[in-house]
Amino acid sequence: MALALVVLGGCNELSARREVQEGNAEYSEQNYDKAAAHFEKAIATAPNLEIAHHNLGITYSRMFKPGVDTPENKALADKAAAQLSWWLAKHPDDTKIRKLITGIWIDADEYEAALAFWKKEHDRDPASRDVLQTVAGIYLKSGDWRSAIEWYRKDVEAAKDIPGKIAALSAIANVSFGKLFGGREKVFGAERCEIAEIGLQAAEEGIKLDPKAIALWGTSQGLWANRSVANGQSWAYQIDQAEAQVFAQQARVLREEAKKAQAAAGGDAPAAPAGTPPGSGT
Is 153 domain-assigned? Predict the structure, then answer.
């Protein structure tokens, strides 16, 4: 009887692998419905055949349409996530699949599922800055910018060198700037001042670590300029605008120094740092 079960199991896996091959052929022709049917049949025949779960999850991800809010499309996202989660339980370090499943959750507005997954990854590897940044990014996409900043703060603490800490502090400053710039017609008064202070504090920390961090000087200028419209008093506006000009001037000086250094080395002048706010602060 034991021998018969072994033989039967081998036959089932062989049959399931044939289904996977046929599913792969349909997938290559972009016949995703037919491909999914073959992969589902393979799993029904051999439930532990890993490649069938992997390929079925990818197929469902292809069938899922971001931005389409229907029960059917939501079901495809759930099916894709279920199969890819099964695969990740066996292959937790598959970065390609981790990225794919995260994208599906975000596109399907399943932020809680994405956060639950990545917080488990954080528990598994608390020192991983990639994980910290991913959690922060998911919070930011979900609209919870305060939680995003909390996780970027964790990234500051986890960074072992000055460039890493400056990158994390820059992320905080940029989140604050983006919140002010995007909400320039909605965010006023004390709330606007608070958001600006969060960014300015982070930028100040970074500048203390590296006084020549051009991007942080530029971001600070943008934060001061955006803070200046927090309330209607003309004196407060003038003070904040004056602070903005101080940071703008220092950013210009550092850019000129960088250009001269680059020219002396025989190279082209560097472009303005990515993410530097416009000089007008608007």
Answer: no
Structural domain ending residue among the three candidates 94, 109, 124 = 109
Rounded-to-integer distance, Cα 28 and Cα 265, Å:
51
Query: Quick check: 62 and 49 in contact, CB under 8 A?
Result: no
Distance (Å, rounded) from C-alpha 10 to C-alpha 101? 31
- Does the residue 152 lie in any domain? no
Q: Which sign does the torsion angle of CA 68, 74, 76, 77 carry?
A: positive
Distance CA 152, CA 202 (A): 10
Domain assignment of residue 242, yes or no: yes
Q: Span 111-129, mean pLDDT? A: 96
Q: What is the pTM of this model?
A: 0.79
CATH number for the domain that contains residue 102: 1.25.40.10
- Pair 192, 229: CB distance under 8 Å: yes
In a domain, 30, yes or no: yes
The single-letter DSSP state of residue 230 is S
